[in-house]
Structures are given as C-alpha cells and as structure tokens.
Write a structure and sequence with these properties.
The complex is a heterodimer of chains A (268) and B (173).
Chain A (H helix, E strand, L loop, with lengths): L2 H6 L2 E10 L2 E9 L5 H21 L7 H7 L9 H16 L16 H17 L5 E6 L2 E6 L8 E6 L2 E10 L3 E6 L8 E2 L4 E2 L5 E6 L2 H14 L4 H5 L5 E5 L5 E3 L15
Antiparallel strand pairs in A: 1-2, 2-3, 3-4, 4-7, 5-6, 7-10, 8-9, 10-11, 11-12
Helix pairs in contact in A: 2-5, 5-6
Chain B lengths: L3 E6 L6 E6 L29 E2 L13 E4 L12 E5 L3 E3 L2 E10 L2 E11 L4 H10 L10 H4 L3 E3 L10 H9 L3
Antiparallel strand pairs in B: 1-2, 3-4, 5-7, 6-7, 7-8
Classes of the chains: A alpha+beta (268), B alpha+beta (173).
C-alpha cells in the first residue's frame, strides 16, 4: 500500500448518527478535504429529508398524513405529493415482485413503511451527491445507500450479517449503490405473507443489491417472504442482484451478485 | 489441508470481514492498514481523539445524536516503536479465533491470527466455495477485511471486531 498516498488522499472525513424513523441512520462521508461549510449544510438537508419522510409516512404518528390516509380522514390529494409518489413506487414494486411485496395487503390499511426507509435514505444520499465529495454511505438500520467509495475507484464493501449469528458476517459485497437485507432474525415476525395475511418467512435472510435502495428494500422483503423460488424475479432486473441465506446457512444467489472476491486495490 | 475461515475485523473504522485461508500459519499482510491510525469509532481516544461536534441546525427538528469530524492522520507524529498484543479469543461464525495485532506507534502494521478453531464446520467450506474463492490465492490483504458498513435485517451493532478491538485496547489504542 502507498501509505503516503492514502494519508493524503481520500479518507473518512465525517461520521454522523441520526435517531429517526424509529431507528438510527448513520452517515459516513469520504473526501480528500476536511468537511466544508457547504458539506455541513448539505448534511443538514440530508438529515431533514429523513425527518420529513418520518413526519409524513410514520404509521406510529397519529397526525401523520399516512395515518390520516389509512383512517380514511384524508384523500390522497390532500396528502403531500410524496405520498402519491411513494405509493406509485410501491405499486411498481408490487408488480415486479408478483405481489410478494404488497403494502396493501397488510391489515389496517396501506402501509408503505417497507418502502419508505430505503426510499428516504436514497433521497437523503442524493442530497449529499450534490456536494461533489468522493463518497458517501448512508446506513439506515442495516440498509445502505451510497455513491463513490472510501477511496478513488474503490467500491464500498458491505458485510452481510450472518442470520444464524448476527454478531458475524456471512459474506461481503461490493455495493453498486444500494444494499438491503430483510429477514426475521432480529425483530421477529415482522414480515407478512401478502397471500395469507399471516407472519411468515421462507428465508433466514434476503439481501438485494442495486441502484436504488427503495426498490432494493422492497425486493429484499419480497424474497424474505417468498424464498428461493422468487429469485428469478430479481434475475430479470438488470441492475439488481439477490442473495438468499436459508435456515441451514445455504447460499442461493443470482448470477451477478457482487460478492467481494478480490482485494480491490492490492498492488502487484 | 485444513480449511478454515476467519473473521478478522475491527480495523480503524470498525471494519470487519470474512477471510478464508488454507493454513493456520498464514500471516495476514494488512498493508492498507498501515496508512491508518487509531480506530475512528474508538471511544477511548488518545491524541487522535475524534472531535465531537454539534451540527448547527437550521430547523427545529430532533437534534442529531452524535457527529464527529474524523481527525486527519497528520496531526500526530506517532512514535515508531513496534508493539503487539493478542486479543481475546472470540467466537466467530465457524468457531473461535484470536487476533494478534502489531502496531508502530498508533499505526497498525500487521494483523495475524494467533489461534483459530473452526471445529470442522461444514458451512465454512460452503461459504468458501460460494463467496470468497479467490482469497486463498491472494495475500489476504487488508481489503479483504476492510468493510465500510454492515447490512442486516435490522440495526446490528458490529460485534465482529471484538478480538482485534481488545488487542488494540491492550495497546492503548
């Protein structure tokens, strides 16, 4: 390694934890230069994107527009435009997944929660993209959106939690921009089979990589519910790949899943 | 040939990763780590302590929890005395390992596996075939262990780096 080049080159310049959407979202920013005033301002804006999404889409907030919509007190037209946007994206995801991701099947009215976290993190990242820094990684409670990398021409590497032992990794991926993992091992029973309305999971863990965290998150949810038989759904999508780990620890992945195979900047 | 897998982790920014190798005698050459200094996520800081900063907010929403500016690597001229320590034996996915780390000043110069026992776990071989087949041919460079984030079904604190972190703690880093 060229230590001097690394010391003078791109490095992590800022780390931030934000409590929002019922969890913690972390920001890691990489650049050659210390954080500028412009970058700080964009970080504020990126954080606000998350809070705005939480305020509009939280089903736990009685006065949120989505809660009003679910109770039938608000029409879609009375909600912020983003509600219609997200529901349209949810419709697309429902179609792509053959109904395995279906926010309309959940008891209590339409619940786009499974899409919103990734969607909001992606929008938050897109704010930071305007800064021109080398790389940014937004980790929304285990779903990551990023651009650039920790160094020039180096992709971010994301460890995938081993569903059988969450203190360890099952593998590492080189992210193409979004990595979402879904499963029941941490929170238990929060996946609903849209076809039966009952809690279920046919995969211990489903990870989807791609170019958009909202759709990746929805696809991961669908695969965690549907299991290996649904892998071809993702195989058909050009920019998305998937990995399913079953209860016995077996891996099933689409052909192009970006397993980290080789050190990316090893000299010689 | 014994086939084993190790999780080496906890480098400078709370890194972790999955490695594989053919022999327990492998010395990991974590070259990229030579450029980095004390762990960015360390809370027991030395002269390279991260600066805790409040984000000056422009609106009245929930204040951020923590923000830190990651320190530059040029602020300290660390003494170049090589020291090493072995971390606590720690469970990993396929057994137990202990990590040995060598530092020069506050710079990690070498990380190796002091001991490992995978118990002949068949899963380790499966994962080797599926995910990281070429690592055995590589020199197990630092990038193998180098990750910037973790994806899981919910927020999961990275516990991978326990052994290395404990070794670093023994060294006062």
């Amino acid at each position: 390694m060229r230590s001097s080049a690394t010391q003078q080159g791109t490095r992590k310049i800022l780390h931030h934890d934000e409590h929002v959407m019922g969890t913690i979202v972390t920001f890691d920013l990489y650049d050659d230069e210390p954080p500028s005033t412009t970058l700080w301002n964009l970080l504020h804006e990126a954080i606000d994107v998350l809070h705005q999404a939480d305020n509009v889409f939280s089903t736990y907030k009685a006065h949120s527009p989505i809660s009003g919509l679910r109770r039938g007190e608000l029409t879609l037209e009375q909600c912020p435009e983003t509600v219609g946007e997200v529901l349209e994206l949810c419709r697309v995801a429902r179609t792509i997944t053959g109904g395995w991701f279906d926010p309309w099947s959940i008891p209590g009215g339409v619940d786009p929660t499974g899409y919103v976290k990734g969607w909001a993190a992606q929008r938050s990242l897109d704010v930071l993209r305007r800064s021109g820094i080398r790389g940014a990684l937004v980790n929304a409670a285990g779903d990551t959106a990023s651009f650039g990398g920790p160094q020039h021409d180096v992709a971010f590497r994301i460890g995938i939690v081993d569903p059988a032992d969450t203190q360890h990794l099952a593998c590492v991926v080189e992210t193409p921009g979004a990595v979402a993992t879904s499963g029941v091992y941490e929170r238990g029973g929060h996946l609903i089979d849209p076809h039966t309305g009952l809690p279920t999971s046919r995969a211990a863990s489903a990870t989807v990589t791609g170019t958009d965290l909202g759709l990746a998150d929805a696809l991961a949810t669908a695969l965690a519910v549907a299991g290996v038989p649904a892998l071809p759904l993702v195989e058909e999508l050009d920019e998305f790949e998937a990995l399913i780990i079953d209860d016995d620890g077996n891996f099933s992945a689409t052909a192009g899943f970006p397993f980290a195979r080789t050190p990316s900047t090893t000299p010689g | 040939m014994k086939r084993a897998h190790i999780v080496v982790a906890g480098t400078v920014v709370g890194l972790a990763g999955l490695l594989s190798f053919n022999s327990t005698a492998v010395q990991l050459s974590l070259g990229s780590l030579s450029a980095v200094t004390a762990p960015a996520r360390s809370t027991t800081t030395t002269t390279l302590a991260p600066t805790t900063t409040s984000v000056p907010r422009t609106s009245g929403s929930t204040p951020p929890t923590t923000t830190r500016v990651v320190p530059t690597t040029t602020t300290t001229a660390a003494p170049s005395v090589a020291r090493s320590a072995t971390g606590t034996a720690t469970n990993y996915s396929y057994g137990i390992l202990a990590v040995k780390v060598t530092v020069s000043g506050s710079t990690i110069t070498n990380v190796s596996i002091a001991s490992i026992n995978d118990g002949g776990n068949p899963r380790s071989e499966y994962i080797d075939q599926q995910s990281i087949p070429q690592l055995e041919q590589q020199a197990l460079s630092a990038q193998s262990a180098n990750i910037q984030g973790v994806s899981g079904a919910s927020f999961t604190t990275a516990g991978f780096e326990q052994s290395l972190q404990s070794a670093l703690s023994k060294l006062g880093l």
